[in-house]
Amino acid sequence: MDTSKPLNKPIQKSRFLQTVEILGVSAKLGMTSFGGPIAHLGYYHEEYVSRRKWLDERSYADLVALCQFLPGPASSQVGIGIGLSRGGVLGAIAAWLGFTLPSAIVLIVFALFMQGMDVGSAFWLHGLKLTAVSIVAQAVWSMGRKLATGRSRATIAILAAAISLIWPNAFIQVFVIAIAGIVGLWLYRKSTDSQAESTFFVPISRKWSVVCLVLYFGLLLILPLLVRIFGGGGTTNGLLLFDSFYRTGSLVFGGGHVVLPLLQGEVIHTGWVTESDFLAGYGLVQAVPGPLFTFASYLGVLISGIPGAIIATIAIFLPAFLLIVGVLPFWNSLRHNNNVQGALQGVNAAVVGILLAALYNPIWTTSVNTALDFVLVLLLFGMLIYWKLPSWSVVLAGAAGGVLLGILGS
């Protein structure tokens, strides 16, 4: 892929049209991005970097690296960051809404009408898991060719993949990224990188960023106090619910799957949701596209109906939104510092390695079971890499292929 082509900069469009464009693109991703947080990064890469060129390889990798460090759903934060770059705060909101609403709506419907439905054995779902394999493989291929070139960076990527596979832990991944940054600072801080001067627009002031950061930490402190003052019953249930899900969203490192034990403690131990309903909903969220954090939408319905779903969904994503909007303007300046550029070269190589490890486990190990599965993955990979077909068509082909494999195997 030739990343030397000029980026499609967000100019010569009204703010309204930019926002509508961001909403439409992110909604398409929200309806087609199956496979979990790591797979989402692959879908993002194909849509935002390869196809639309809204940002270059280096900017995308830097944004992914930053979001790996921040608490919250990393894939959603990357999408919010891209929306912020493209269309300001309205663009960030549109990117979040578009990516989140499809799965949130589906899970709300499931919670209302379809509890007990078994979707785990559906043939089309197996096909979508195989599609995620091809999407992530394409991301590893494309990012590796740009960010893990040369002996030293390839070595960092390989070691990062090995460590992530041997010790599959979210905190280990953060540790690996930090060590890779130190190594990159040592190896590359004096080197010139032709890709270092990448363009990443952040059209908001640092004052707004400080406001967002103050809100992030302020709500963590104030919400529990308000719950204690006003109590947790009657009409203040919404306040208690908001506090619980906001705190959960603020303390999750490592992506969507890590939210399970935190939410379990919040909603089961308090008696809001039964364990069987909780596990049934967690099974359902694996079957829909979009962020795993929309599990909160399902739980919100069980706790307090549609209003509960709205409160829980906003509360669990709000910390991630405030953090990425608060940090990005400062990050955009820091990443052009020579020392930071050197560290980022190491970090970006490590991100490729971590993505490679995730391609094997859990994506490959939970999806590719037979030779026919591998054949379908190869076909889908070819559709992306060589035939240059859009991701939505590959998703449809994967679902159809899963049904065909199910028929052949039955």
From TrEMBL:
Subcellular location: Cell membrane
GO cellular component terms given for this protein: plasma membrane
Keywords: Cell membrane, Membrane, Transmembrane, Transmembrane helix
Membrane-related topology note: Multi-pass membrane protein
Coiled coil found in the keyword field: no
Keyword Ribosomal protein carried by entry: no
TM region(s), chain numbering: 93-117, 123-144, 156-188, 208-227, 280-303, 310-331, 343-361, 368-386, 392-409
A GO term for molecular function: chromate transmembrane transporter activity
Pfam family membership, one: Chromate_transp
PANTHER family for this protein: CHROMATE ION TRANSPORTER (EUROFUNG)
UniProt family annotation: Belongs to the chromate ion transporter (CHR) (TC 2.A.51) family.
Protein name from the UniProt record: Chromate transporter
Source organism: Paenibacillus anaericanus
Origin organism lineage: Bacteria, Bacillati, Bacillota, Bacilli, Bacillales
